């Protein structure tokens, strides 16, 4: 029996190869720093180590809350090494493999992956079965250019079956998508190549994990003499990870402040424009303003992240600066809320002004109700579309079809709520478009800088979210919860395109008179040319 699986891993890599997207282009992944040497190979194998805890919301019912996934590198290129439980490591180099490596060259790698549970009684990790997988020996290829490892795995099985030799089931594919050096999330996908009717088949497992090992930070805040103490192991084990995350939190705080300052400036421009052009005030959509007020209020009331989701780390970990930036961001949100509320009150008063004609006064209330109903229908339709393409069958357990309960069900509901909040903010122009259409007016109710500027801010947020965390949509281990890569790309692209289209529609509506005149002049000019 040939135990080498490199040819199968190479075929797997070709099948799974993704188009190199924008998210890969500026990124650097764990790689050799130059020509191959023992020290660099040892350092790289250390960085490719996976040792962390699975988040509680990814655990099936019946398992404890401290499930560890560990994948140690047994060999990398000519390097052969082994980690001991105490953290020490034995290494050796195959001197017969006289090959020079570069920092972009594919490397053969073999690993050992196990799932463990921390027992409260003994305070020790014991190996367990996680979704019918306990330990897998893997062999494959690491690509440092895109930070992905494609592996073929073998596990011991007690029963025979098709393709089982010497008690080993080797029809297992494992893909690991490492984060770039300044990012945080590692995605691990384990797939059985057996048919569903095969007794050795198991459902696809997809785990999204952070570099830090456990959600229970108190474990590694203990003293070194505590029985449960372990060092700050990272996932993968980047030595400068804490500093990188601190820089990222600071950068995200500064980015929030810059974007919120832009929102305030654009809102102020709209307020100033309405004060100068009082005739446009009643034509600004009250529903649009109400939804913006709601969008600013929710982060302040719930304590949620502002504008975009950051990492899951506490602000206290990285000193005072991220905390100050967070408070500054919330203050700017409050300023945006007050300015938008001021515009809302102006529009409401003008629509109910005694000097308004009776016809117009009786028009606004049913008009606003119709805009609200139409906007709700549009948002609900988009939300359903996002749920279908982004969280397919998310409310059903993939094994028995039953509803999930507890933390997972709450997490799924929270994902839907966040999707809805994102839809409302991304499509903030929908109420104004509907209002303009119903009134059949060419009034320039919104200043050009206002709606174009806010649209650009939404696009910046989507761009940053895509570059920083390309697989944040895949939060669950069940394959039904993880949309295919092509679907995820289509969803992200479609949302961005729709945001731009909405801004274009508003621009056309507000400039329709000029456009109509230009078209008529163009037709007249063409007609004169034909006569000549």
TrEMBL record:
One of its GO terms (cellular component) is endomembrane system. It comes from the Eukaryota. The keyword Membrane applies. The chain crosses the membrane at residues 253-271, 283-309, 329-350, 370-388. It catalyses: S-ubiquitinyl-[E2 ubiquitin-conjugating enzyme]-L-cysteine + [acceptor protein]-L-lysine = [E2 ubiquitin-conjugating enzyme]-L-cysteine + N(6)-ubiquitinyl-[acceptor protein]-L-lysine. Its EC number is 2.3.2.27. The lineage of its organism: Eukaryota, Viridiplantae, Streptophyta, Embryophyta, Tracheophyta. Its main location: membrane. Keywords: Membrane, Transferase, Transmembrane, Transmembrane helix, Ubl conjugation pathway. It is an enzyme of class 2 (transferase). Residues 248-512 form the SWEET-like domain. This is RING-type E3 ubiquitin transferase. Pathway: Protein modification; protein ubiquitination. It comes from Populus euphratica. It is a multi-pass membrane protein. InterPro entries: DUF2921, DUF2921_N. It is found in: Endomembrane system. Residues 32-206 form the DUF2921 domain.
């Amino acid at each position: 029996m040939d135990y080498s699986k490199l040819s199968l891993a190479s075929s797997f890599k070709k099948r799974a190869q993704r188009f190199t997207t924008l998210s890969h282009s500026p990124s650097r992944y764990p790689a050799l720093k130059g020509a191959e040497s023992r020290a660099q190979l040892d350092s790289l194998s250390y960085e490719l180590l996976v040792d962390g805890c699975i988040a509680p919301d990814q655990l099936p019912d019946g398992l404890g809350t401290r499930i560890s996934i560990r994948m140690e590198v047994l060999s990398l290129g000519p390097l052969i090494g082994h980690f001991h439980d105490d953290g020490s490591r034995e290494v050796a180099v195959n001197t017969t493999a006289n090959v020079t490596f570069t920092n972009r060259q594919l490397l053969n790698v073999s690993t050992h992956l196990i799932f463990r549970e921390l027992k409260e009684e003994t305070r020790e990790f014991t190996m367990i079965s996680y979704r019918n997988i306990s330990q897998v020996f893997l062999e494959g290829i690491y690509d440092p250019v895109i930070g992905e490892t494609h592996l073929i795995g073998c596990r011991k099985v007690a029963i025979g079956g098709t393709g089982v030799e010497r008690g080993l089931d080797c029809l297992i594919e494992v893909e690991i998508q490492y984060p770039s050096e300044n990012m945080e999330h590692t995605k691990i996908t384990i797939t059985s190549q057996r048919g569903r009717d095969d007794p050795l088949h198991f459902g696809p497992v997809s785990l999204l994990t952070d570099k830090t090992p456990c959600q229970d930070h108190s474990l590694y805040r203990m003293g070194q003499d505590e029985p449960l103490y372990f060092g700050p192991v990272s996932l993968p084990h980047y030595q400068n990870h804490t500093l990188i995350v601190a820089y990222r939190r600071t950068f995200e705080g500064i980015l929030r402040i810059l974007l919120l300052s832009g929102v305030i400036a654009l809102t102020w421009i709209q307020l100033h424009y309405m004060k100068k052009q009082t005739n446009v005030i009643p034509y600004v959509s009250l529903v649009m303003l109400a939804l913006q007020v709601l969008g600013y209020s929710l982060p302040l009331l719930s304590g949620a992240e502002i504008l975009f989701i950051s990492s899951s780390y506490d602000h206290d970990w990285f000193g005072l600066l991220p905390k100050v930036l967070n408070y500054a961001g919330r203050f700017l949100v409050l300023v945006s809320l007050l300015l938008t509320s001021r515009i809302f009150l102006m529009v409401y008063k003008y629509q109910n002004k005694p000097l308004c004609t009776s016809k117009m006064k009786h028009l606004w209330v049913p008009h606003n109700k119709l805009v609200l109903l139409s906007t709700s229908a549009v948002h609900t339709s988009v939300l359903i579309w996002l749920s279908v393409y982004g969280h397919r069958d998310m409310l059903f357990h993939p094994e028995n079809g039953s509803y999930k309960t507890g933390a997972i069900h709450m997490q799924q509901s929270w994902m839907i709520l966040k999707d809805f909040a994102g839809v409302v903010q991304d499509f903030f122009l929908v109420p104004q478009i509907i209002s303009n259409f119903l009134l059949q007016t060419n009034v320039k109710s919104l200043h050009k800088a206002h709606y174009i500027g806010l649209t650009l801010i939404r696009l910046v947020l989507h761009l940053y979210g895509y570059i920083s965390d390309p697989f944040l949509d895949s939060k669950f281990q069940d394959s039904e919860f993880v949309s295919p890569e092509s679907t995820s790309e289509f969803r992200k692209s479609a949302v961005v395109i729709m945001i731009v289209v909405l801004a274009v529609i508003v621009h056309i509506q507000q400039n329709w008179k000029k456009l109509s005149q230009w078209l008529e002049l163009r037709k007249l000019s063409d007609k004169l040319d034909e006569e000549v």
